[in-house]
Amino acid sequence: GDSSKFIYIEHKENKGQSTTRNDGIRAATGNWMIFLDSDDYLSEDAIERMVEVSERDKSDIVFANYKTFNDQGVEHAFIIDLPEGIYTTKVLVNHFYDKIAMNMLSCIGSKLYRMDFVREGKRETPDSTITNYDTAFILDALMAEPQLSYLNKIVYIYYQREGSITHSYRKNMYKGFIQARKELLPLLKKCDCYEQKKLDYHLVVYTVISKSLVQEVRYGRGYKNFKTVFTEIRNNPDTAETVKVICENNQPLNRKLLMRFVKGGNSILAYLMFYVYTHILRK
């Protein structure tokens, strides 16, 4: 290929994904931008089709679909359940959790960005972001209420390494989740759909709280580490609302019990509950 089309940026030391992506954004000279992770690839005409849509609709961001595959060749497609066309941010956000699964936000390469829109807002991923950079980037972009288009095509093929997520310890799971999604709650409120999405939103937060705590027990990190994460969760100003929503709705007893432990600051009881579940009941 024509090497003049490529700008090669080398970091002498690992600066993390946020800094690396931001350097790429600053160096970019084209009219559109798409991110691509090292193990993944785009469908043959992905960029061509997405650029066509962006030009036709004069849209700032084009959303499309993606699929995953693993070492066993198992594939799974993730499709936005909406008609193709132009969308306002408000309409699109009002379809979160039902027509648009939230993992669509965290897929890096299923969105094409107009560079003028990125440059005007100086859109970058904060260097403090620990994980889920893609969610942080798209939520920041959506807060600017861009013109959006949806292309009903699988454009991104995402390789899932076996066991990379479900069978390994993830440091800062809760902190990373909260940092990446800090603009989701304001976005839901800005688009006048927080009340109708409230339970969906807080059930996802509950799931991350539970997973963050259970992995401290499952991987033998000990009570000290468990208490650190527990305290971090309890000190988050939005946790009280999650406790309230879970406890006031028709939710399983174990969820309400954990939320009451969090509310009361009972880290020892919470630790024992997870220890029994992880080391006794699951055997």
**How many strand elements?**
7
H and E string: HEEHEEEHHEHHEHHHHHHH
Oligomeric status of the shown chains? single chain
| Proportion of beta-strand residues | 5-15%
Structural class: alpha+beta
Uncertain runs: none
Distance between the termini: 56 Å
Gross morphology is: globular
Please state the average pLDDT score: 88
> What integer value in Å does the Rg equal?
21 Å
* Number of helical elements: 13
Please summarize the sheet with the most strands.
7 strands, mixed
Q: Bin the helical content.
A: 40-55%
How would you explain this protein's 3D organization?
The protein has helices at 16-27, 46-57, 89-93, 103-106, 115-120, 133-142, 173-180, 184-190, 194-218, 222-235, 239-248, 253-264, 267-281; strands at 32-33, 41-42, 61-69, 75-78, 85-87, 111-114, 148-159. It is of the alpha+beta class and 283 residues long. Strands 1, 2, 3, 4, 5, 6 and 7 form a 7-stranded mixed β-sheet that branches. A hairpin with a 5-residue loop joins strand 3 (61-69) and strand 4 (75-78). Helix 8 runs antiparallel to helix 9. The mean pLDDT is 88.
